[in-house]
Amino acid sequence: MPEKPKPKPQKKSTPQPPDTPLPVQLEEFAKPYALVSLPRQAPRRGSPAGQERFRRDRLTGKLHLRLTVKTTAFVASGVVAMGSDLSSNKTKNPPLIKTAVERDNRLIIPGSSLKGVVRSAYEAITQSCLCKTKADKTKIPDGYRECNQKDNREYNKKDNFCPACQVFGALNWQGLIQFPDAEAVEADFTVGFMPSLKSPSRDFPGYYINGKVAGRKFYYHAIRAVDKGQQQGIAVQQAGGEFVFTTRLRYMNLTKAELGTLLIILGQDKSYPNIALKVGGGKPVGMGTMTVEVTEIEQFGSGRERYSSYQTEPQSLTGEKMRQFMEQSIKDAHNQLVQSRQLQELSQVLQWPTDREPPEGMY
């Protein structure tokens, strides 16, 4: 009998070096999200400015923001209500509805929800720690452990925080930005039918390189949100397309570079103008896309000026003056804080408008 041909030896795959950034788009896994790679250099830690006094060499003021919903947005309150108890001008309500967060019959985005979204992006484009990750501690790359963890002696110091923790705060340390709730301009809502979503698997192979976390996870925007209809979906109270929220972010003792990094994330950089935020639930199925417009910047003077007279008013920046101020701050951010590769990767994921379709089935 003729001998069976011997199978060809398979080539061994070369392990990827731990400092090689992971490609943003993981098309082979067909996921509605991507990983923004970690900077090759570990977090750059230093002493935060603090809030015990107003620093003359830093900026204090407010950002007036206008958030416009592009795909339906749902921020859950945790309460299920009778549809007959909710009044809407646009829809006939089903018997039971998962309600959104409201105040005085207006939808709101809790400040904590908005802060989490903005902070995640800020961490991704700066040399910052992996904060509040659910990954096992043994899988955190060297130097990326969360600032001021009790079981992490190296970083458990009040003068040793990464760029994001200096601005947004950390365990036992108050940040320099306050996020009030964003309130809807109109007292109305729509009802949608969101698909039932499962918890993502943390064993997905693309999450790790050589057993270590490969990057930070962000969901793509989609041209629309998936609506499964009353027969298959879960009824939710939501903000429809072009719904508008307004808020004012308060900041204290920021450098121009820190404020500029915040403005980049809010889509104010002319080189990356298409960045939009993903807020609330249903991110995998295209929900929660919002664009941001800065309508005014209030810039306060020194503490002495503010408290030495009853007539002191903050400097209001609008129009051309505001544009110039933002451009200078963004320029400083690129020169001092922002990691260009990570910003490019993030902008690809959070780019709006998009032609990307939302996933209709399991992914």
UniProtKB/TrEMBL annotation:
Superkingdom classification of source: Bacteria
Keywords, sorted A to Z: Antiviral defense
Keyword Metal-binding tagged: no
An individual GO BP term: defense response to virus
Ranges where the CRISPR type III-associated protein domain occurs: 69-289
InterPro entries for this protein: CRISPR_Csm3_endoribonuclease, RAMP_III_fam
Signal peptide: none
Name under which the protein is recorded: CRISPR-associated protein
